[in-house]
Amino acid sequence: MTIGEFELIEKFFATQTKQRNDVALGIGDDAAIVTIPDGQQLVITTDTLVAEVHFSAITSAYDIGYKSIAVNLSDLAAMGATPSWVTLALTLPCVRENWLQEFCQGFFDLAADYQIQLIGGNLSQGPLSITVEAFGFIPFNQALMRNQAKAGDLIYITNSLGDAALGLLNLQEKVTLSASDKKIALAKLNRPEPQIEIGSKLRGIASAAIDISDGLLADLGHILAKSNVGALIQLEKIPIGASLLHTLASDDALTLALSGGDDYELCFTVPQEKQTALEKALPKNLYHLTCIGTITSQKGLDLQYQNGKQYSGEHYGYQHFQK
Amino acid sequence: MTIGEFELIEKFFATQTKQRNDVALGIGDDAAIVTIPDGQQLVITTDTLVAEVHFSAITSAYDIGYKSIAVNLSDLAAMGATPSWVTLALTLPCVRENWLQEFCQGFFDLAADYQIQLIGGNLSQGPLSITVEAFGFIPFNQALMRNQAKAGDLIYITNSLGDAALGLLNLQEKVTLSASDKKIALAKLNRPEPQIEIGSKLRGIASAAIDISDGLLADLGHILAKSNVGALIQLEKIPIGASLLHTLASDDALTLALSGGDDYELCFTVPQEKQTALEKALPKNLYHLTCIGTITSQKGLDLQYQNGKQYSGEHYGYQHFQK
């Protein structure tokens, strides 16, 4: 290794980021200085990706860079926020410039899609780990929270579920996939698209929202717990990912769609009187939303088949600590 | 391990933090929501502590928790900012509740001293590592930056230098210390006091500032490079830490004070016409500040003894990546 921390920051990070007018001071001082627009609140979230826990040795540096921002933008999307800046705390065992170059490409490609500026961070030596903190704006009191779902609200999912979990099973050599299914599943696992646009269009319409990172049942469970309500889910309506549908038997596919992690879709609730507003804001010909059930005043998750049969599969989402 | 991520957050973090009025939504949703006061800019910094790199296996959990905030507050101090919130991304190999309890005590003790609220974070499984992001306010255009030092400005240091580096040498069994010196040196190493009060009083007075984390020469070097100036340092004036003075011969003590890391004191520059304002804002009977030299238009660091002799010791500060 022939390059120091400050040269690395200059070479790979300081010069590649977009410049925004609301950043008074970016990379290169003790701290960054930013300005928040009038009438807006600041939304802040952070997520860490750890090598061998959140990604494997064969994950490309591009995908790691991309995903380290994507998972944070997904949290901003779930608040209805518009992204503005990120910081990056990167811990590397050693400096491999090729790796860093690729990492930065993934990182800055996604950042550029959303006009995001990297305003600061930290480089340390140690086991590979990436902590991104993402910032966004939301007009006062318009954020989508977890605790405002009410009995009678309809429950929606963006796009489809389970393909990312299938991609992980494939990497773990637990399922074999056709070339085209593998492409879909790994894209979903490694390059999830944060639902920023849908999130921001849900302001004033959705009563509650969360991003699905630990599996639908686990994450919907957070809305139910915080809102002190329950839910009735119609299992036939769960939108199952394309590669998953092709690959597993329907019961297994459903289990993975309900409980697999890493979807980064949104789960949100909409009061019935807001249905028209929802269809106007997010027309069916442009956005793929599926109503999967209803919030109930009775607590608990009621997972029903159309014939009245109860779901009997695996209920639990990703556990952050192995027991 | 018998406790999940969400129970851990609830038990150790959500309930222990101070509540501030400017936090609309704290721990427990997809993101935090905060409000920035009118007329203020937001100052943002982040720093990571990695096990076996930034602290050793014998460092107490209390000290790790304390220092993970302290090093970030030191960056805010160097901007002249008033701290408001922190986030914490904590990666743990396993959950040991005793360790977490102690860690949180150190973390929240220091946070409480500065009225700081923990507004969010992330818990992951992996090699022990702590990334804190700290936030503070500064009135518009009053931040102390690195790039505004001018020839003729006087260079100051808060308190004294080198005791933390001596503490590290002692932990590495490279020097033996008396019980009282060891107490001083390890306190300086493990529980550095962020110079928030002095930083905020320097607004409108100092032309540039930095916190000394990698050694005085390295960090002053950043001010010089960013401001496009040089400095003449009078070596006899360097304020050497008490335990260091007791322990090492004067040449070695000076070298450690100039180049040792982990001081977390401030180095700042003051235009000569602001001397009176400085003495009024930070009276000598209350604050220990030392003028160690002058900014020069000629580039480079000129380290002189009173007799005109040049310094010939080690010049370099902490290298973040071992070569």
Tell me about this structure:
Two copies of one chain form a homodimer. The first copy, chain A, is α+β, with helices and mostly antiparallel strands and about 325 residues long. The first copy, chain A, has two domains: about 5-140, 60s Ribosomal Protein L30, Chain: A; about 155-305, Alpha-Beta Complex (Phosphoribosyl-aminoimidazole Synthetase, Chain A, domain 2), CATH 3.90.650. Helix content of chain A is about 35%, strand content about 25%. Chain A contains ten helices and twelve strands. Chain A has helices at about 5-15, 60-80, 95-115, 165-170, 180-190, 195-200, 215-225, 240-245, 250-260, 275-280, and strands spanning about 25, 30-35, 40-50, 80-90, 115-125, 130-140, 155-160, 210, 230-235, 265-270, 290-295, 300-305. In chain A, strands 8-10-7-11-9-12 form a six-stranded mixed β-sheet, sandwiched between helices. Chain A is globular. The two termini of chain A are about 40 Å apart. The mean pLDDT of chain A is about 95. At the A-B interface, strand 2, strand 3, helix 2, strand 4 and strand 5 of A face strand 2, strand 3, helix 2, strand 4 and strand 5 of B.
